[in-house]
Amino acid sequence: MTLTPSTLWDDDHTRRVTCIACGETVDRDDAREYDKHGERWDREDKTFEYLCKPCDRECCHQPRDGLERTLVAAGAGRTDRRTFLRRYGELATDSEPNCEDP
């Protein structure tokens, strides 16, 4: 059997996924892949998380070099919100790109 891109991704388009931002369950066609390691095209042995299209549009699509390391170091997902925000604020610097800057 020859595998083509349509064969490889056919199941992707018929399943439902959960948005990691808002928690909505949507058709895979109505979602965007999110790869926290930033290597979206390296698919070998990888599973992806998903954002629904409205949440994806709200995201900053600027380069994020070092962002994931900073989030992990600040305790994202492992500590309470107040502690995480304090740690993230301490780790982030003004020299990093800001999505709201023109």
Percentage of residues assigned to helices: 25-40%
How confident overall, as mean pLDDT?
Answer: 76
Spatial arrangement of strands, main beta sheet: 1-2
Binned strand content: 5-15%
Please describe the topology of this protein.
Blueprint: H1 5-14, E1 16-18, E2 25-27, E3 31-34, E4 49-52, H2 53-58, H3 67-74, H4 81-91
Antiparallel strand pairs: 1-2, 3-4
Structure explained in plain terms:
Helix 3 packs across helix 4 (81-91). The protein is an alpha+beta fold. The protein has 4 helices and 4 strands.
Quick structural summary:
The chain has four helices and four strands. With 102 residues, it is of the alpha+beta class. Strands 1-2 form a two-stranded antiparallel sheet. The chain has a two-stranded antiparallel ribbon with strand order 3-4.
